[in-house]
Amino acid sequence: MPNSRSSRPKRLRRWIVGLLILAGMAASFPFLLQRAVGWAYADRMISLDAALADSAFGQGVAIVYGARVYASGRLSPMLRDRVETAVQLYHAGKVNTLLMSGDNRAANYDEPGHMRDYAISRGVPAAAIRTDPSGLRTYDTCYRAKHLLGVESAILVTQAFHLPRALFTCDALGMEVTGVVADQRIYSAASLSWSESREIPALLVALFDVVRRRPATVTG
Predict the structure, then answer these.
(1) Three-state DSSP class for 90?
(2) Environment class of 130 (CB within 10 Å of its CB; exposed 0-12, middle 13-18, buried 19+)
(3) Does 29 have pLDDT greater than 80?
(4) Into which CATH architecture does domain 41-212 fall?
(5) End-to-end C-alpha distance for the chain, whole angstroms
(6) Scanning 39, 64, 76, 172, which has the fewest C-beta atoms within 10 Å of its C-beta?
(7) Sheet holding 176-181: strands in order across?
(8) Cα–Cα distance between 138 and 159 in angstroms, integer?
């Protein structure tokens, strides 16, 4: 008759091994998800030069994602590159409308307003610019563009590290989208490291959001 006492440590070891395997799978999932999304949308990301050179490339709307604006109203380097990229797409006839989406929750902080002002200073007519002051997150921007503003297809303009998540989110919400990479300079190591590191948790939240199909934070 088998010794029940001697079998207990074996069962305990199997449980421990099983738990370790599950923990390893859970820990690796966010990184595997990022790799999978990056691979899945790599063919929808195009450089600005390639977009300008392709006579067949274009959509009606370019969605420009907000980012930090300094107290003086000056755009942060990443945001300036996003808006400048969209401006060049407009002047090249690749789009006819720029949708500036960003955070305007506070009276003294207005991302889309300053984005609009910069585009106007670069020769884009005000009539060609729409602003969404409630694009608080990437998901909110995509959701509001699709469900509140009626955008069915668009060019997404942001940095390469952000484009896969933006493309995934808008695509999952039913939009036909392509991304133009807005990296026009070398960013500081600290800024780029922070931005890239937050993409993994942000992508997990985006996956949760699109599965639930939750409304945007602000729906008005």
Answers:
(1) helix
(2) middle
(3) no
(4) 3-Layer(aba) Sandwich (3.40)
(5) 72
(6) 39
(7) 45-46, 176-181, 153-158, 61-65, 97-101, 129-132
(8) 13
pLDDT, tens digit, for every residue of 143-197? Answer: 999 999 999 999 999 999 999 999 999 999 999 999 999 999 888 877 777 777 7
- Model pTM score: 0.85
The domain limits of the chain are 1-40, 41-212
- What does the pLDDT look like over 92-151, one tens digit per residue? 999 999 999 999 877 788 999 999 999 999 999 999 999 999 999 999 999 999 999 999
Residue that the structure tokens 């200073």 belong to: 121
Q: What percent of the chain has pLDDT over 90?
A: 58
Can you tell me whether residue 132 is helix, strand or coil?
strand
45, 81 contact by CB (below 8 A): no
What single-letter amino acid sits at 82? R
